[in-house]
Amino acid sequence: MREATTGEHLMTYPLEAGGIDDYPVKVGSMLLTMVDPNKGFESAYNRWYERDHYYAGCMVGPWQMSGSRWVAPRSLKDLRWPEGDTAVANPTDSGSYVAIYWVQEGHHEEWTKWGEDTVTWLYSNGRGFPERKHTHTNLFDRIGAANRDADGVPVDVALDSAYDGIFAVWFDARDGHSAKSVHAELLKGAYSELMTGSNIEIVSSWQPVANPAADQPMDLGTPAGGPERLVQLIFVRGDVTDELDRMKAYTDGVAAAGLADVHLVAPFFRTVVGTDTYVNELW
């Protein structure tokens, strides 16, 4: 790093390539919104969301780092487990689309205030979409992340890195544990075992924000959970279904170790932005 000299702009020049944790822009929290369009409105919903609401309701806002959309056609919904658990998705196969947004660390409250005001304005001005149902829409704080590769993709830029698929996973820590303590235990070896030799590159861990808004503009589905709730987004290159056996072994191992119980493991494909790909395959 070289400091600016007299006559140069007052800034520091990063002349050497940094590693995963060496840059100052960090994700601190996320919005995760899992939704179903009502039957018969699949294409209209998809286009409204990606061409209007995705931007007007989130991406143009202050401190919004990035966003992405993911889809679970029927073929992926049928792979979810544990079967019949309704703590997150009720029923288990609800939630065809999930949109995920990163918020810059240290600015969650400012971002939330902008979002609440903006969404209220949009709905009041005919920019909502009534033919949809929220499965699970909540805010989460980052706990940490693990990478397969020592010089891999930082979680801070993961939504922009064109991953082909994700697993979204919800655990509840058992008595004597919290979301943070479970993540700390899994860092000791379980994450490495999951990712080594696979197409899984990042495991990111999250917990519900401590003080969610009391008033919501609509029914947002199942609640976020408490400090025991550990949410993980697991980023995959290639076909997400190729990693099902690894993921099942991973979640079984977490339970067998007495750390946490899994409520939902849901694979998703990345949406093909600008197209109606998958809209006829949801049910």
From TrEMBL:
<protein>
    <submittedName>
        <fullName>Unannotated protein</fullName>
    </submittedName>
</protein>
